[in-house]
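Hi there. Long-time user, first ticket. I'm pasting a complex I've been working with (about 506 residues overall). I'd like to know whether the download I got is complete or cut off, because the file seemed smaller than I expected. Thanks.
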Amino acid sequence: MLHTQPDELSASERFRANLRLLTAQGHPFDLCVLSRQLPQAAELAKSLHNATFVLDHCGMPRVASGEFEYWRKDIRTLATLPNVHCKISGVIAYGDPSRWQGSDVAPVAEDLRPYIEQVIQSFGWQRIVWGSDFPVCKLTKGLTTWKHVTDLLLQGASDSELEALAHGKRAAHLPVKLTENALMSTAQSLQQAWPTPKRPIPIVMIGAGGIVNDAHMPAYRKAGFPVVGIFDENRDRAQATAERWDIARAWSSLDEAIADTAARKVIFDVAIPPTATLALLERLPAAASVLMQKPMGVNLEQARAIVDCCRRKQLVAAVNHQLRFAPYMLAVRDAFHRGWLGAMTDVEMQLNVADPWHLFPFLGRWSGWRSRYIRSTIWI
Amino acid sequence: MRQWLDTHVHLLYPERLHYDWTAALPALQHPFHLRDYRSEAQSLGIGPALHMEADVREADIEAETELVEELAKDPSGPMVGAISSCRPESTDVRAFASVVERTTANPLIRGFQARAAYTAGRTFRK
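Hi, the file is complete. Here it is re-exported in full:
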């Protein structure tokens, strides 16, 4: 299976039947495929689950062009298949040798590090082997550099991990183990931020209360998201907020805000009391993009009515304050996808809340309101 | 020094076998014999080693296996096995089955690969 063959070849029944015959006595089959063919490689390995496959050259990432995300996604998929092993080899030939002047191996190692670390993380020490790819490795730097790069990148590995790799052991029954040092250095690489848009969509601010001034505007400013105008039932408050945050327009009515922005794509940030949300959504143009404040109504009936409204008007709507975007949630999600946490069998949520009631004087002293407020937040 | 198993070594003997794919890669258009590999690998602690098929012409596949058998007998090492070429795209069921029978019975052959992805040279020449 290779790139000089048509991609669909490996999918043919004859090809699979022949591979089944070839591997029937336990001989592994090396998959030497281009990174764009990795999904087909995964399909093949999945359909022949009794055969052992060795993915050559870390799946041939195009290192010189910086290819990473798509390659990583495919590597993770392949690593979920227990019959696929990965060969740490070849990648030195895919780098850009003009970046590697002189005899210093460090820049070579840095260019290859993300790929090799990803392979080790995804496959674990028991499902990797090492190869020189001599003499193809000479197309850039050669065997000596490749071995030194390997040594440099594996400095944090334990003796038993190095033994497993050096001897090509395939003791799949041994648990995947990262050394504490390797784990700490790789933990820093976990995703902790959501990708930011290159051209953010302008925001129309509806509401000019405390949360807008204390949280929304500072956050938008920090992220560099443009706010084109603001509307509030209280004209003076809208005006004051516009001045404070340098917002170009303070509209005197919702209709004016809608008319003024009708020609362009905007996001309505609806930061008003939950009892007023439904009526406001009904007045927005169909198919508008809306970020709604929590809670989504004050009871289940209102929440359902809001959902109905969003569907009927085909609004692209979200309720904010979702923990899925929080750095620690993103990191846990990434760790799970890297296979560090094993298979997911159950999810337990534990919520530790400090209630800063003094920041929300409008809830008064009635504990029922407080509890309803915080619960609605959690449910959403 | 820790000895490293090298699972992927191509040795090129153009005086004996045809490597058509090297035409696109001048840097690989000359012999890379066992002694060339050994002299560099030994000092790095690399070995034992498995020969990876080097995409010879289909008619040369068995001759490549014979070559690796010879090399594996070299008392200085480090070749201990081979990953053999094969053509699973073959539609001749009987011929393929007989190749499988012969090759899987050979203790030197540790695995298979179907040609090599560097063949067209596209990987390296953007």
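A couple of notes from our side: Chain B touches chain A through 49 residues (CB under 8 Å). The CA atoms of residues 9 and 51 of chain B lie 5 Å apart.
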